[in-house]
Structures are given as structure tokens and as C-alpha cells.
Amino acid sequence: MTEEQLKGLGFKLTQKYEHDQYHTNRYAKGILEIEFTYEGDNLLTCDLTISGLNCKPVTFDEMKALT
Questions:
Q1: How far, in Å, CA of 62 to CA of 38, rounded?
Q2: What is the Cα–Cα distance from 41 to 46, expressed in whole angstroms?
Q3: pTM of whole model > 0.90?
Q4: What's the rounded Cα separation, in Å, for the pair 9 and 18?
Q5: DSSP code of 26?
Q6: What are phi and psi of 33, to 5 degrees?
Q7: Residue 7, SS3 per DSSP
Q8: How confident is the model at residue 57 (pLDDT cuts 50, 70, 90)?
Q9: Do 8 and 27 form a contact (C-beta atoms < 8 A)?
């Protein structure tokens, strides 16, 4: 996934920050947040956070997909 693809889904850049030799761009849409962390120009991680989700029924197949 790229930042441009995410923007195409309606996500908005909400924060940019630097830490050590890394920089991170955070995007949000509703309760979904995606962070792209780079070292120089190299993408290291792309992480999803779902805020405000305290309890959700889950099936075994969903758990397999998540793990």
C-alpha cells in the first residue's frame, strides 16, 4: 500500500513527525489510522490502529485472517 492509494480511499494526513533517523506520516479516516514509517526514503512499516473499538464479536475465520 502507498500513501497515494490511501489518499484515494479518502484518508487525510493528520500528523507528520520525526524520531531519530525515522519519519512517520499518519493518516486518518473515521476510527481508522494508518502510519507509514520511513528510514530515509525506505518504507519500514505500515501500521493500522482502530481507535474506539472496545469490543467486537469475532469469528474464528476472522481471527485466522488477523493472525
A1: 29
A2: 14
A3: no
A4: 25
A5: E
A6: -130, 135
A7: helix
A8: confident
A9: no
